[in-house]
Amino acid sequence: MIVVVTIVAAGEALFDLINHRFLFRNMRTTYTFLLLFAGMSLVSKLRLPNWLLFILVYLIFFSIFSIEMFFDHSYVDYTSFMVIGGITLLIATIVTIGAVKIKSRGHR
Length: 108
Hints:
flat
């Protein structure tokens, strides 16, 4: 995972240099990977059943995205709510599977 983040960060920095932009302007993908990896590492340390880990991660990310959309005035109608729910479902699945893999390898 760290290798993937490093390759993506180097590629984005190179892309910014070629286009004569600020070096770390395009780093949102790298920050997203780092956030997901940090979430996996933190969740792997909890001693809860996998389904409860999934629900916990889902609620945390859903509340973060909902608060962000509320302050951005991005909530249009119930479809925005459903799209955020779907995206959060995907993120919670990725983080939970990663946490279970980290836990099964014994990295604590």
